[in-house]
Amino acid sequence: MKIMVVDDEPIVPQALRALIPWEEHGFTWLPPAENGAEALELIERDRPDLLLLDCRMPGLTGLELLEEINARGLPIKSVILSGHDEFVYAQQAIKLGSLDYLLKPPDLDQLLHVVLSVKQSWEEERRLKHQLTDHLPMVRFRFLTSLLEGARFNEELFEEKTGFLQIPLRVGPIYLAIVDLEEDPDDPKNYSYEDQQLMNFAVLNVSEETLAAWPHKFMICPGHNRFVLLVNVADADKRKFRNDLRALADNLRTTLRYSAMIGVSAHGSSLNTEGKSLYQSAKTALEYKYYTGPGEVVFVEDLEWENVVAPDLELPASAPVDEALQLALKIGSPEQLDAWLGDFILHLKSSDYPVQVTKSIAVKHMVTAADSLATMHPKLTLDDLLPPPQISLFFAAATLDQLAGELRRYLDGLLRRTLDLRKDGKNAVVEKTKLFIAERFRDNITLETAAQEVHMSPVYLSFLFKQVEGVNLSDYLTEIRLGEAKRLLATTSLKTYEVAVRAGYADEKYFSRLFKKRTGLTPTEYRNREA
I need a surface site. Which of 82, 235, 356, 488 has the fewest CB within 10 A? Predict the structure, then answer.
C-alpha cells in the first residue's frame, strides 16, 4: 500500500518517516506534499493508496483536496492529521470519506493501529475487486439472463446494478436483437473450445466496431453461435439502428465468413421491466429465417401478422381441407398426395404465419393423415403411426423447404404402409373373418363384431371383404347360416324353430321368410323335397 503525507509543516512527514518502520508493515513511502495543489500533482504521478493530510494548509486545504479527489473519482483512502480539535472539521472530513480524524502530534501506536486497519480494509477490498474482475463476465451474464427470463427491477435498483457491473445500459427505450450465426458450408469450422472462445471474442469486437455510434449497448453469448445484443435506441434513431444492424450482418459475413440472421424485438420502453417480452419478441422475429433463409435482419414490428393477431386466438383456419389428404391415403394415390402437399405448402407460404403456427398446422394435418390409416386398421395406434420423434422432426425444421421435405418423406412412408397393408394383409384378414364366421355364425354376429375380431374398422372390413370375396359380408354370413339350416333340415328331425336357432336365428318367422326368399321354398317344403 502506497502512503503519502500532505502537510505544510515539513517536520510532520520527516518525523513520521523516521519514527515508524513503514516498509516492515507493508507500506511504500511516497514523497510528501506541502499543500493541496502540490498533492494533486504528485497524486497524478505516484498514485497513492492512502493520504495522511492536514486540514488547514495554504492554498488548497486538506478538505478541499478531498473534495477534488472525490470529484475525480480517485480510489484513495485518507486519514486527517490536524492540530485543531474542532468538531466541524472532523464532521466535514468524515463526510468527504476520511476514515479517521487524529490530532497532532499523533500517538504513534494509535496512528499505526489506524493505518494498519485501513490497510487491512484496503487489501480486502482489492481481493474482492480482483474476485469480481475475474468473475465479472459471469456475473454480468447471470444478471442480464435473469432479465431475459422475467426478472424485474425498479429503475433505481437497475441503475445501481448496471453501474456496479459496468454494463453501459440505461433505463429507457431499447431494442433486443438475437444474432444467430451460421457457418459457410464451403468453409466449415471445426473449432476447439479455445478457438471457439476466440471466435466469440472476434464477433464481439466486430459488433463493437460496427456499432461504435451506440454507447449504451451490451452483448452476451447465451449459446453456441448465438448472441444477444441490447441497445438503448431513441425513437429518432430507429432508422440509423436498422442500417447499422444491416451493416453488422454484412461485416460478420465478410470478416468472419459467418452468415448472420438477426431477429429484432419490438421497441421496448425499458429493459428493467420488459426483458422477457423483448426476448420472446426477438425470438419470434428470428424464426422468420424459416421463410427468408439466413443473412437477413428481421424486425418483429415489420411483421404484420405478429402485430394484429392476439396471442390467445386459435390457430388460423388451415387450407386445403383434410378431406383431400384423407382421400389420397384411402385410395392409395401418390399423384393425389403430391397434389395435396403442393397446395398445402403453397398455402403456408402465402399465408406468412409465424413459424410455430406453421409447424402446428402441419402437425395437425399429419395427425389427420395418421388417424385415417388408424381408422382403416384399428390394430395400429396413432402413436405407432406418428411417434413423438417424428413430430420433433417437424418442429426441428429450420426452413419451410425443410418442413416440406420432412412432410413428403412422412406421407410417402404412410402411403407405402397403407399399400403394403392392403397387399399383404387383405387375404389374411378375409380368411380370418371367414373362420370367425364359420365358428361363431350361431351367435349374434354383426359387421361390428367381426371387425373387432380382426382389428379393423367395420367400413374398411366391409370394403375389403367385398373386394376379395365378391359378396358383402352380411350376404356371406347369411349363406353360411342358410347352408347349416339346409343341412339340418335334410339330415335331422329337428323342428323348424330348433333349426332356426342352431342356424343363428332367434326369430323362427324371420328365418322362414328369409329361407323362402333365398331358396324359393319354405323350410318344410325343402325338408320334404330332400327326404
Answer: 235
